[in-house]
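Study this fold:
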Amino acid sequence: MYVGKWANTGLFQDFIDELFSEHMNSIIGSYESSKVDRIRIASHSGGYYTIGYMATVGGMDGVVKDLLLLDSLYTNFDQFDAFVTDNLCSFGTGETQFRFSTVYTDDGGPCLTTLQWRIERRLGLQDPNA
């Protein structure tokens, strides 16, 4: 699947800055991405390709704190296991904490199991030779 320019480093931050400066300035006044403290991104179906890159190379590290995948996790596990393991100590239920949620149909379960196995292996909780 082609994600276009969303895979470019810093593009999501540029998008947010453009959104504030060119499209929302008359509504909320002067604002920029450096003032944002939390972004939640949701995807459905093939949207996981795009949000994986938004969360990992988009330039908003520490600000993209919530990923919600709605029947939207089939491949591209590297971005998601990086998001989870890189922020593992920051996950929880408070407003400043990170969240990763995936809701899937019966056909999506094996992909979630694969992601869980990859994360556990990366954290040393699985036998690397398994």
User: Anything to note?
Assistant: The chain is about 40% helix and 15% strand. The chain has a mean pLDDT of 84.
